[in-house]
Amino acid sequence: MTRYPGQKHYLVAVDCIIFGFDGEHLKLLLIKRDFEPEKGKWSLMGGFVQPDESSEEAAKRILFQLTGLEGVYLEQLETFGRPDRDPVERTLSIAYFALIDIHQYEKQISGKYHAGWYPIDKYPKLIFDHSAMVELARKRLRYKASLHPILFELLPEKFTMPQLLNMYEDVYDAAFDKRNFSRKILSTDLLMKQKDKDKSASKKGAFYYKLNKRKYTANFHAFLKFIPNPDHLI
């Protein structure tokens, strides 16, 4: 086998930042690391890229091992390559972030890794540079959400206006006026009001809505009118 002379070989890993929404809060899925170094401490789900797979294939494999999920929204974030990021040996990590509806998949989360969901602004201390990965992924999520309908990957097919408001407030870490939010989002004509209601929170209940995916694809810029300036989010 031909090799490049004088060049050292390094490990390549992937780490998955898994965002979920439970109807009230945006959350982060974490595991307890089961090997040294930092055994027993909170970590993103990650692993090493195998010789016969691409980084994306590795990320999908690792995501499936933890959650049992396939076909979820998965996007490459950035490569983290600080020389001292791993105390054992030089390891480059390619970070990905995924979006899932917690309630749809909560029974599939493996208990093997002591996985737990944490609010995005109250998660525990993480190993290595994983906190930097999370914060960068959150910024990327804010930016992408202002340009594409990716936040709806966090929602069930039917959702209420309060759920949508909660999600946007957590993603953007900002308070929206409830009436103004509803008025503006309905003015986009991108949501389809359903006949049934969610009455779990009150007797009056809240109507369910569905995203009109065809209209959203053709007119997604309509959502920009109530989202913070995306140029300030990257």
How would you describe what is shown here?
By secondary structure, the chain is α+β, with helices and mostly antiparallel strands. The protein folds into 2 domains: 11-145, Nucleoside Triphosphate Pyrophosphohydrolase, CATH 3.90.79; 157-232, Arc Repressor Mutant, subunit A. It is built from 6 helices and 10 strands. It has helices spanning 55-67, 102-105, 130-145, 161-172, 178-187, 213-219; strands at 11-21, 26-32, 42-43, 45-48, 73-80, 91-101, 116-119, 159-160, 191-198, 206-211. Strands 1, 2, 3, 4, 5, 6 and 7 form a 7-stranded mixed beta sheet that branches.
| CATH hierarchy, class of the largest domain | Alpha Beta
CATH homologous superfamily annotation of the largest domain: Nucleoside Triphosphate Pyrophosphohydrolase
Please identify, by name, the CATH architecture of the largest domain: Alpha-Beta Complex
Stated plainly, the CATH topology of the largest domain is called Nucleoside Triphosphate Pyrophosphohydrolase
Strand proportion, as a percent range, falls in: 25-35%
Spatial separation of the terminal alpha carbons: 43 Å
